[in-house]
Each structure stands twice: as structure tokens, then as C-alpha cells.
TrEMBL record:
InterPro entries: HATC_C_dom (IPR008906), RNaseH-like_sf (IPR012337), ZnF_BED_domain_contain (IPR052035). The keyword Nucleus applies. It is found in: Nucleus. It comes from the Eukaryota. The lineage of its organism: Eukaryota, Fungi, Dikarya, Basidiomycota, Agaricomycotina. It comes from Calocera cornea HHB12733. GO terms for cellular component: nucleus. Its main location: nucleus. Keywords: Metal-binding, Nucleus, Zinc, Zinc-finger. SUPFAM superfamilies: Ribonuclease H-like. GO terms for molecular function: protein dimerization activity; zinc ion binding. This is HATC-domain-containing protein. Residues 142-224 form the HAT C-terminal dimerisation domain.
Length: 269
């Protein structure tokens, strides 16, 4: 065996190693789906923060008690992940913003998600509002009227999105519509902001280091507008092709068995 092949052989991953890698990837994909829910930059996402955290936690707990009940390694991995998510959950409970965003989402109205089925039902409207108002009597009447309404249809089912809803109901619920402007504008994650910074770094190159702040800001707005117009101009077929290409990049084809076998064969050559 040539010397370089002998050195590479030390790094060969056995079949059991590939199995472990796939198990780890499957666990991380569960959390990744939750993160993707909060990564949009064109509509409010904060109302999904609690469900996006509780859903992976529930899935991991199920894996821990069923599929990996007799696997100490994966149980330890899941323990670490659940502990970290639990820390985030405790931090979220210290802020009213998450619950308020859920309430102010007209097609949500603080309905419980499947992962929240074991929660104690909240029957008092004022209990939902926490400490925003000092007493029940200080809560505006429009708040109680709003909660008595049936949740609207989701945008995917033909209903209004949150921003359109509150704009069209700004006269009916003046106080709540102003609160919606403040709370629904909060990003569910830093992904959208990171995209802006990444785009800015491509604009602010060494060849353009004399751009004034005002001109730099204008360029960023133009870039965003052009990008949005290009996306809106795509046909349905082009959008599907774009989505398929993105999914192909995201999905881990390397975890498929045929790829695993090919890699092992190459290392054996």
C-alpha cells in the first residue's frame, strides 16, 4: 500500500461511524427546521418562537425515550441539547414579547400548538396579558373584544397576513394596532439581520471605501428592491425550480447509503 494511502487509511470512517453521523444529523435536522421557521425576513416570525422551540424539544424527548432508550451515547447528546434549549426557554419566559406576539397574530390568538397540549388552559383574558397592565380594569375594552373574535384564516388558506390585518383594523383596535407595530416588528432570530450585514460587506469593498453613509444606505435599499423584484418576476415554474435547487443543496445527500458505500470503497482502493 502506498505511503499516502496508508496515512489516509487512519482517517477511514467505519460503517458504525457513518451510522452515528447520520443519527447526529437527523437530530440536528429537527432543530434546523425550527430555526428555519424564524429565518424569514418579509413577514413577522416572533409568534412562532415558542412553538419552534417546544417542537424540537418534544421530538428530542421522544427520541430519547424510544429510539435511543438503550443508546447511552445518543442519550447524552440529546441531554446536552435539551439542557441548552431549556436554558433558552427559561430566558424566553422572562419576556412578555413572545406571548404578546402570539396574541397579536390574528390567526393564532394564543391557540395551543400540539406540543403545548399539556399546558393548563387559560380561561381569563387578563391572564394572557400578564403584567402589561397593572390591573384588569386598565386593559382597554378593545383587547377583550379582539380576543372574543374567532381567529382568522391563515395566509396560506386565503386569510390576511398580520400586517395587512392590523392596518385594516387600525380604526377598530387603535391601541392594539400600535402595539402590533412594535411587537410584530421584532425579529424571531438574527438570521435576517445577518443577511443584511453579509450583503453590506459585498457593497462596502475596498474599491468603494469612500461611499458616504447616505449613499451606502441608498445602495442597500436598491439592492434589496432589485432582489425582491427579480424574485416576484419569477414564474411559478422558475420558483419551483429555484426551491428544488435550494432543497437539493440543503438536504444531506451524503447520508444516503449509496454515498456511504462509495466513500468506503474509495478509501479501500
Amino acid at each position: 500500500m502506498p505511503e499516502h494511502e496508508a496515512k489516509l487509511a487512519k482517517f477511514r470512517i467505519p460503517a458504525a461511524g457513518w451510522t452515528r453521523i447520520k443519527q447526529t444529523a437527523d437530530v440536528l435536522c429537527i432543530a434546523h427546521k425550527g430555526q428555519q421557521l424564524l429565518s424569514a425576513d418579509s413577514h413577522p416570525t416572533l409568534y412562532m418562537a415558542i412553538p419552534a422551540l417546544e417542537s424540537p424539544m418534544g421530538a428530542w424527548e421522544k427520541l430519547q425515550s424510544q429510539q435511543y432508550a438503550n443508546d447511552p451515547v445518543m442519550r447524552k447528546v440529546l441531554d446536552a441539547g435539551l439542557k441548552k434549549m431549556g436554558d433558552y426557554y427559561l430566558k424566553m419566559e422572562k419576556s412578555d414579547a413572545y406571548s404578546i406576539a402570539m396574541i397579536l397574530t390574528p390567526y393564532r390568538h394564543y391557540q395551543t400548538a400540539p406540543s403545548e397540549a399539556n399546558r393548563t388552559p387559560i380561561t381569563d383574558d387578563t391572564e394572557l396579558w400578564g403584567d402589561i397592565w397593572d390591573t384588569a380594569t386598565t386593559a382597554p375594552p378593545e383587547f377583550h373584544r379582539y380576543l372574543k373574535e374567532e381567529p382568522t384564516l391563515r395566509p396560506s388558506a386565503g386569510g390576511q397576513d398580520s400586517l395587512t390585518y392590523w392596518y385594516s383594523h387600525r380604526a377598530t383596535y387603535p391601541d392594539l394596532s400600535r402595539m402590533a407595530i412594535d411587537y410584530l416588528a421584532i425579529q424571531g432570530s438574527a438570521t435576517a439581520v445577518e443577511r443584511v450585514w453579509s450583503s453590506a460587506s459585498n457593497t462596502d469593498t475596498r474599491n468603494r471605501n469612500r461611499l458616504s453613509p447616505a449613499r451606502f444606505e441608498a445602495l442597500q435599499f436598491l439592492k434589496a428592491a432589485y432582489r425582491k423584484d427579480r424574485k416576484n418576476a419569477l414564474t411559478t415554474e422558475e420558483q419551483k425550480a429555484q426551491q428544488a435547487a435550494r432543497l437539493k443543496d440543503i438536504e444531506a445527500d451524503m447520508w444516503q447509503e449509496e454515498v456511504d458505500d462509495d466513500v468506503i470503497v474509495l478509501l479501500d482502493m
